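Worked problem 6 (solution included).
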Amino acid sequence: PALGDGLAIFMGPDAYVTPAWYQTKQETGKVVPTWNYVAVHAHGPIEFFEDADRLLEVVTRLTNLHEGERSAPWA
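Solution. The predicted structure is:
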C-alpha cells in the first residue's frame, strides 16, 4: 500500500549564460546575464518494499519498456 505522496527532484546540467550571446547586447546594451538549468520534479504515490523478487520484476519491466524495441536490447 502507498504511504502517501512523494517528491523527487533531479537536477541536470546547468550553465552561466553571458549577455554577450544575445543579439540585443549589440543593439541596445540592455541585457543581463542569466543561468540555464534543467530540473525534473517527479511526484506521485510512494511505496517502500524489500522483496527481492518484486524488485527484480519492477526493474525487468522498466528495462523491457526502454530496451525492448532496440535491435540488441540490454538485459
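Discussion: The radius of gyration is 22 Å.
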